[in-house]
Design brief:
348 residues; alpha/beta; DNA polymerase, domain 1; TIM Barrel; 2 domains; 10-stranded mixed β-sheet; two-stranded antiparallel sheet; 10 helices; binds S-adenosyl-L-homocysteine
């Protein structure tokens, strides 16, 4: 087995590791501060640690940062990071600047097992879960690529994979990201976890008291259509899903986000829009309409602008905050649902 990576450890676990190595817990906190607060990823640069302790750390663990294979810039300013993992697997993360925000879209799995019909990642199947180190590492790499005084401001778990299907690692990564003392210190309000609608995971997440935002990939207003688009609907239908959402504890002034991909002639009628408004009645909701992002071989099309705007109007008229997400990074295959393994994937 490979040695554990430091980046996969909570500050409290780094303290325990330091004690195991015969040092004080304080040494563990120092390591956490270097890694997470200062983004220093080289043991030799951790100058206030005794050399002997560093040697013992090196024998027992590795830092565990994925390698950046390529960074592809988009015309709209976003950047796709293609990361190579220790076992040669690849994942992508996407950095998207937007006015005063710098949002990073994180992956949680290599591939995805949920096979949503409109999603390119879904055609890959699932290879494996990412480790905590590989999730946190995506952020550290993005921050390291930015100019010194800048860092990622918002995090969305909307890259490859289903975060709630890699539940434990996603939650631990979030604890490291939000630990204000020795972790990365991100406010949970700036973190959004997006799910296909795994009710069991939503219910567990509700009990964690993480305070992160929840986004639901809804995409349909009837079970018949949703089943066709998202096989997960056979396990948890709209009723079960919206029930779990209604029970999700929401801090004051916070909302649940609903993503709704617009697929021409499939889910974009005015009746759909009206049904959507009525499904969301009583939920503090914000809807994000995502015009379908095309990929080769897809059986769907993006609807015309007039359809998109008409759909949005119905929701706005019903008093539901609704935005259209004009995707970033489309020209580099980095938009929602376009992330996947290049076909010429290297072997071994
Ligand atoms: N598994 C999680 C997060 C990953 S996908 C989830 O399903 O929520 C992030 C969002 O992009 C989801 O709402 C997903 O349904 C949407 N998406 C996937 N493929 C898309 C495509 N081709 N065009 C537009 N949105 C897409």
């Amino acid at each position: 087995m490979r040695p554990p990576s430091l980046l996969g450890l909570l500050p409290s676990e780094l303290e325990a590791l330091a004690r195991e190595l015969g040092a004080s817990a304080y040494r563990g906190r120092q390591v956490a501060t270097w890694l997470y607060r200062k983004g220093v990823l080289d043991l030799d640069a951790m100058t206030d640690l005794p050399r002997e302790f560093r040697e013992r750390l090196r024998e027992r663990a590795r830092i565990g940062l994925p390698a950046v294979e390529r960074v592809i810039p988009s015309r709209d300013g976003s950047q796709k990071f293609i990361l190579r993992l220790a076992d040669q697997g690849r994942v992508h993360s996407v950095l998207m600047p937007d006015e005063d925000r710098l949002t990073l879209c994180l992956s949680t799995q290599v591939g995805c097992g949920f096979a949503c019909a409109f999603c390119h990642t879904g055609t890959m199947g699932i290879e494996r879960n990412l480790g905590v180190d590989e999730i946190v590492g995506q952020l550290l790499l993005a921050n390291a690529a930015l100019p010194p005084h800048q860092r990622v401001t918002h995090l969305v778990f909307m890259g490859m994979g289903e975060p709630l299907a890699n539940y434990a690692n996603t939650v631990t990564a979030i604890r490291i990201l939000t630990d204000a003392r020795y972790g990365l210190g991100y406010s949970p309000r700036r973190i959004t976890v997006s799910t296909v609608g795994l009710v069991s995971g939503i219910e567990k997440l509700a009990r964690e008291e993480l305070g992160v935002n929840l986004a639901i990939s809804l995409h349909a207003t009837t079970d018949a259509v949703r089943e066709r688009l998202m096989p997960v609907n056979r396990s948890w239908n709209l009723d079960a899903l919206l029930g779990a959402v209604r029970r999700f504890p929401l801090p004051t002034r916070r909302r649940i986000f609903f993503e709704y991909v617009l697929l021409d002639q499939v889910n974009t009628s005015l009746d759909d829009a009206r049904r959507l408004a009525s499904l969301l009645r009583g939920i503090r909701a914000k809807v994000n309409l995502i015009p379908f992002n095309d990929w080769e071989g897809a059986e769907f099309r993006r609807p015309p602008l007039s359809t998109i705007l008409a759909f949005q109007s119905v929701l706005l008229d019903a008093g539901i905050t609704t935005t259209v997400r004009w995707s970033k990074g489309e020209d580099i295959g980095a938009a929602c649902g376009q992330l996947s393994e290049p076909l010429e994937r290297a072997v071994g």
